[in-house]
Design a protein that fits this description.
Structural class: mainly alpha
Radius of gyration: 27 Å
Number of strands: 9
Shape: elongated
Mean pLDDT: 92
Distance between the termini: 29 Å
Number of helices: 20
Strand content: 5-15%
Low-confidence stretches: 1-16
Length: 549
């Protein structure tokens, strides 16, 4: 059966260049999730601030100097993992034959780490992953070269998006996934360019780009970090933001009008007594859609108290919006810091109680405040926990939606015909419609299982802890998708009930009325029994497109 596709998906990432593309300056300090999401659109370009370039240069120099002083630098002069005792380049890394040895080592590592599984990430995730890496270079923490930064920016500013496998993360960092960016920069992998998959070498030739050979810390900093998972997390969080902030308040408001429900749980003086974060914001967003609604008039047939799925929906939405806020805050911090190992810090504190300890001298690179340190910055436990928490909160929002839907077919609750059967309909209306929703609900609940800590130790036991932030981001994205599905069943019921109330002379709110009018362009009133598969699928398309950018 052919479904009517009305509008592009809100998160289908259709590659249409914006009319007014902008240049965004990366300084390693102030990039936000919202700006990053804007940059990910086709046509948006980036530059690096003057201070950012200074930090890139200083960061690159630090490990080079440390190696010259005779230190073994992980990924620069010695190999990775269990092979870290094996030399790959001499102390004077910039001089031959060490320079060539470094490039050869980096290119070999790029190839042997590439073992990811399809499908590939969307172009916007790929572009964000590159922008994050350049911004982290500008923060001065990666040790990467100016040449590497410029190579990334050539792809970003020409919308050349490396194909990055979405599956096969090591669990501690992205490794195999991020490696494909490096391979594409080297011209040894494929990219999406002008809507087509083409060899990177072909695009580089077309754009007249100079050959790029990863040198020094470029190799390990390209592949051993979490910039892909961070980009994936940003995409999932922005998707959740649309569902929770733009869509959910109006959905809850329509359900109240469908029920002939009470506004009392959402009033300021009610919410004030609860005192929870985001409580007022969520409640007022619901009420704003009900300006002019019949619900503000007395009605002797209105029940004093509604089922909890209507009464508590505001508080549950507030909880989810607070989890969303915390997730965005964490990501705002992550994209301006780094997940590298080792890290470089050229602006380190030198007045701590342990700053003069003998062991710190082994970590300094020349100046007292310049350090090259071994670490586990790619551990993303905090972000993974937050994304799992957001997923659970979002599914609680979905839970109330599913239960509201089942309440609306009960004439004792609504005062409308059982199963919302239209007066002119001689059939059964929505008698069995919600049954299809049950399996979707179970699908969503399965996404609440934690994936933290799972993994197979590698590198002969050195890599043995896991946060799997990429999996938590994927589960969040899938949960939102099911959320749209559940909402599609609810809005089909809500709209039917709202139209019936309008026929009875009731006036809908300004926001809910406009929402209903738009929805009716996608899904018509059910005046006789019909196949509902097109309706619920067109409803998902409508919901994903509602108020999206």
């Amino acid at each position: 059966m052919n479904f009517k596709h009305l509008l592009p998906l809100a998160f289908g990432f259709v590659l249409t260049a914006p009319a007014f593309a902008a240049m965004h300056v990366l300084d390693g300090k102030t990039l936000t999730v919202d700006e990053l999401w804007e940059i990910s659109k086709p046509g948006e370009t980036v530059s690096v601030s003057e201070d950012g370039w200074k930090r890139i240069k200083a960061s690159y120099k630090a490990p080079i100097d440390a190696a010259t002083d005779g230190r073994d630098i992980y990924g620069l002069t010695v190999n990775y993992g269990a092979l870290k005792e094996k030399k790959v380049a001499g102390a004077t890394v910039e001089d031959e034959p060490n320079r060539s040895a470094s490039i050869k080592f980096n290119e070999r590592q790029m190839r042997i780490q590439a073992a990811g599984m399809e499908p590939f990430f969307d172009d916007r995730v790929s572009k964000m992953a590159m922008v994050i890496r350049v911004n982290q270079m500008a923060a001065g923490f990666t040790g990467m070269s100016e040449t590497a930064a410029k190579a990334y920016m050539e792809y970003i500013n020409n919308d050349v998006n490396p194909l990055i496998p979405s599956r096969g993360s090591e669990g501690a960092n992205d490794l195999s996934m991020a490696t494909h960016i490096g391979l594409a920069l080297m011209g040894e992998w494929d990219v999406n360019y002008k809507g087509k998959r083409v060899p990177a070498a072909q695009v580089r030739k077309e754009l007249k780009l100079a050959d790029y050979h990863p040198f020094g810390m470029d190799g390990i900093s390209i592949l051993s970090n979490s910039n892909v998972a961070e980009a994936q997390s940003v995409a999932s969080v922005k998707k959740a933001e649309h569902y929770l902030v733009k869509l959910s308040p109006v959905m809850i408001a329509t359900s109240l009008e469908a029920l002939n429900g009470n506004v009392s749980p959402y009033l300021w003086h009610t919410v004030e007594t609860k005192g929870w974060p985001q409580g007022h914001e969520a409640a007022e967003a619901v009420l704003a859609n009900l300006k002019g609604s019949y619900l503000w008039q007395k009605d002797n047939k209105r029940y004093l108290q509604d089922p909890l799925s209507f009464r508590s929906a505001g508080y549950i939405l507030a909880a989810a919006q607070e989890e969303l806020r915390q997730a965005k805050d964490l990501l705002n911090s992550a994209i301006n810091h780094t997940t590298d190992n080792p890290i470089v810090n050229t602006e380190a504190k030198n007045d701590l109680w342990y700053s003069k300890a003998e062991v710190l001298d082994e970590m300094r690179a020349g100046k007292p405040n310049v350090f090259v340190n071994s670490c586990a910055n790619f551990d993303n436990t905090q972000l993974a926990l937050q994304l799992e928490s957001l997923t659970k909160a979002l599914i609680q929002v979905m839970h109330t939606s599913a239960w509201r839907t089942t309440q609306l077919v009960d004439n004792h609750r609504t005062g409308l015909p059982t199963y919302l059967v239209a007066n002119q309909n001689k059939g059964d209306g929505f008698a069995n419609l919600a049954q299809s929703m049950s399996g979707l609900y179970a699908e969503a609940m399965g996404l609440t299982n934690s994936v933290l800590g799972y993994g197979v130790p590698t590198s002969i036991g050195i890599e043995e802890t896991f946060s799997n932030v990429n999996l938590t981001a994927d589960r969040l994205s899938k949960a939102v998708d099911v959320g749209y599905d559940i909402y599609s069943y609810e809005i089909l019921h809500n709209a039917q009930a709202m139209d019936m109330r309008k026929e009875g002379g009731k006036k809908m709110g300004e926001g809910t009325g406009a929402f209903l009018q738009s929805y009716r362009k996608a899904v018509p009133f059910v005046d006789k029994d019909r196949v509902f598969t097109p309706d619920v699928n067109n409803g998902v398309q409508f919901l994903k497109s509602f108020g999206a950018n």
